[in-house]
Specification:
Helices cover 55% and strands 10% of the residues. The protein has 301 residues and is of the alpha/beta class. Strands 3-2-4-1-5-6 form a 6-stranded parallel beta sheet, sandwiched between helices. Helix 2 links the parallel strand 2 and strand 3. Helix 6 packs across helix 8, helix 10 crosses helix 13 and helix 12 packs antiparallel against helix 13.
Length: 301
Amino acid sequence: MNTEIKQLAIIGATASGKSDLAIKIAQKMNAYILSIDSLSIYKEINIVSAKPSHEELSSVKHFGIDVLYTNEHFSVDIFINLYKEVRFTCQRKGKNLIIVGGTSFYLKSLMQGLSELPVITKEVSLHVQTKLANLESAYHFLSLLDPHYMQNIAPNDSYRIEKMLLIYEASKLTPSEWFEANPPKPIIENLAIYNIEVERDILRERISKRTNKMLQNGLIDEVCMLEQKYTRLPHAMGSIGIVEVLEFLDGKVTKEEMLENISMHTAQLAKRQQTFNRTQFENVTSAPLEALEKIILTTQF
């Protein structure tokens, strides 16, 4: 088994050209691609997520795309487990790995790591499920137990409430006490990170063009299908591109206003992504898209 593989990450705002660049680099580096995109992970959210085409996906082996259904929960720990599986596959196949996407929070989590959880017995799990039957009561219980930690968890966040209950019932430590005693360990270290720089005006123009292309490709039909199949309750149904179409379907906005709102909200997201990428990572190589390919290939070979 070849355990030495090259790994790098390509980050950048939405519509900055990350996917195309990653495919070009992967083909030259004998690499697989792991997507870090909070929407492409879902099987039926294709147009809204601006998922790579079938041709692009078949040109290089991709992971992290079409993994879950829209009503299934996605979290950092699920992503970290996915990364570990992909890394093992790359080691076994003698492939390098390129991590690419706009949800850089997951990349940050890979580099920081997660705290291990206590051993969860069947009895503890059943006890917690009983408590979760009344989510409001479970949240109130945890808030009294550990107000500092729970202030960052929403009362309707059933996934995290369940996780905190499992920690307490299994360890008899509050979440704050548990995480202090079990600090996170990095999953990946010394990762080369390359960030795509794009002028804001150019990015806005790309976002506007992409939004119009999404409409032409069947955006409204896709959202109708998702709503009919999954209702509006899943977390993913609150994503940019879906919310605005639902407003249009409800008769709250015109089609033109819907497109404007999608473009505006996507541009706001891009700004947040650029700020995150600039402030949350050290030793990042940033350059315009045209120059970054050459920089990566020069640095990696």
